[in-house]
């Protein structure tokens, strides 16, 4: 009986040590007049006397704020190794991280770009400078990360896309883009203006550290290729990687480790 008790204590201690630094927070959105959840992962030895960089990590279509920590538990290890916070905001069900002009319940560009960082900086010990903020995401989140970084470069200094759906002008059917921007036939300009492939034409005065990667077997790799090629033409500095993989969690679990190393180098250079 004593051995069983000690075993339970040991297991509890191990799991407490691993998972104690994951918080679920509720962030009130003034833009949408409701509270929205997010996950905050702090490094193992987090303390309020130290200020930390922050990586904002976005989920994909049909996902939610908890996806990254449940699908890729190693996120906490990466946060510790990078000595930064990892914040996973909620992008709702297919928000595309835009401020919808037709649905006031979907103002997720404002929420992720402004409201979430404001909350994190006021509730956690962070380095409050764009040089210590990065934003990345998978698929729809890859689109959201680059869109937000380019449009809010005074807040974010680095960004990353994994398997990014970077040209929503090509997504005219399904994935609820029409619910955010209206019917494509009637709103072609909105689709173009909210696509990363177009947004990158307005490279910010404050330079961005950019990483884009995609699996060779990914059905939307063409979007990453097109964005990469356009960035080359526009002479926008960036890292571009293609490696074996599909549009799935096996690929993203591998890709995020590389992107976190990229962001650590960016933070350390400042």
Strand numbers in spatial order across the main sheet: 1-2-4-3-5-6-7-8
N-end to C-end Cα span:
55 Å
Structural class: alpha/beta
Stretches where pLDDT is under 50 for at least 5 consecutive residues are 1-20
Task: Please tally the helical runs, counting DSSP H or I stretches of 4 or more residues.
Answer: 10
Order of helices and strands: HEEEHHEHEHEHHHEHEH
Determine the strand fraction and express it as a percent band: 15-25%
The shape, in one word, is: globular
> Main beta sheet: strand number and arrangement?
8 strands, mixed
The residue fraction in helices comes out at: 25-40%
Rg, please? Answer: 19 Å
- Mean model confidence by pLDDT: 92
Q: Could you give the count of β-strands?
A: 8
Features of this protein?
single chain, 270 residues, alpha/beta, disordered N terminus
Describe this entry's structure for a reader.
- The chain is an alpha/beta fold.
- The chain is 40% helix and 18% strand.
- The protein has 10 helices and 8 strands.
- It has helices spanning 2-19, 67-71, 75-82, 108-123, 140-151, 177-181, 188-193, 196-199, 221-233, 249-268, and strands at residues 22-29, 34-41, 54-58, 85-89, 133-138, 158-162, 209-215, 239-243.
- An 8-stranded mixed β-sheet has the order 1-2-4-3-5-6-7-8, with helices on both faces.
- A hairpin with a 4-residue loop joins strand 1 and strand 2.
- Helix 3 runs parallel beside helix 10 (249-268).
- The longest helix has 20 residues, at 249-268.
- It is globular.
- The protein starts with a helix and ends with a helix.
- Mean pLDDT is 92; it is low at 1-20.
